[in-house]
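[Automated response] Your request has been received and processed.

Submitted sequence:
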Amino acid sequence: MQVYAFTVQTNRNSDPSIVDSIYSVCDDATASVENGKLAIAFDRRADTLEQAIREAVDALRSLAVDVTSVTLDVESLAVLN
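Generated structure:
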């Protein structure tokens, strides 16, 4: 398994209760605010990048957090070669 680093942008404003919920479901996440919206950085261990992103997005959707985009970390791109 590899560790893939990426950031998920959402349409949610930062709210302590949703951040706490994210941390309770995603122990590999770090929340921040980008352009006024909640962004969650992941260092996710998975067999593939696709699996890592799908699992993270599914976890967020289970909390009613809509994902607007995913940005890959440059180091994760190097792993794909």
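Summary generated for your ticket: The longest helix spans residues 49-61. DSSP finds three helices and four strands in the chain.
If you did not submit this request, please reply to this message.
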